[in-house]
Amino acid sequence: MIEGNDERRTVKVSKYLSKHLRHQPEKIGLTLDEGGWVEIDALLAAAASHGFRITRDELDHVVVRNDKKRFAIEGGRIRAHQGHSIEVELGLPPAPPPAYLYHGTVPRHLDGIHAEGLRPMNRHDVHLSTDHGTATRVGARRGRPVVLTVDAGAMHRDGHVFHVTANGVWLTRTVPPRYLRFPGAR
């Protein structure tokens, strides 16, 4: 347990884990396996040797308490569920999506999305939510949110592949513009 249930420390540890389990493990001397896993003891030692001491209790607290359920622990190892910019194979089987999924963004990206659809940018996949509220929160991290509706059922019928993570995030390579509904459009 994090002493005093310090929410700021929880967020700080979560961001640290995200950075090093999704984007830059090499910055602290970690090597993730092909599935994105690393031994917990190796992670804790690497963090400590780079001036960011995390206790096992703190790590467990962050994994359990993280509102987005970003991390998984299994057999003495840890990994991020999704959002990697480094090469990993999450091993998720294809799954038929719900009829509609949602994506949160901000107004400054709408022209590009109208032209090119949703692209993964520096991630492996486009991240989609099953509900409007989650997509709104995702978009709000970067400004005034705009929520796009994705006709995932039509995409699936047309051969696009979807995967779903253990924490309920839907992943697909791209979403072409024809499958998107923009707020205020008919």
TrEMBL record:
Keywords: NAD, Transferase. It holds the Pfam family PTS_2-RNA. InterPro entries: Ptrans_KptA/Tpt1, RNA_2'-PTrans_C, RNA_2'-PTrans_KptA, RNA_2'-PTrans_N. Signal peptide: none annotated. GO terms for biological process: tRNA splicing, via endonucleolytic cleavage and ligation. Its EC number is 2.7.1.-. Gene3D superfamilies: 3.20.170.30, RNA 2'-phosphotransferase, Tpt1/KptA family, N-terminal domain. One of its GO terms (molecular function) is NAD+ poly-ADP-ribosyltransferase activity. Belongs to the KptA/TPT1 family. HAMAP family: KptA. NCBIfam families: PRK00819.1-4. Removes the 2'-phosphate from RNA via an intermediate in which the phosphate is ADP-ribosylated by NAD followed by a presumed transesterification to release the RNA and generate ADP-ribose 1''-2''-cyclic phosphate (APPR>P). May function as an ADP-ribosylase. This is Probable RNA 2'-phosphotransferase. It comes from Streptomyces nodosus. The gene is kptA.
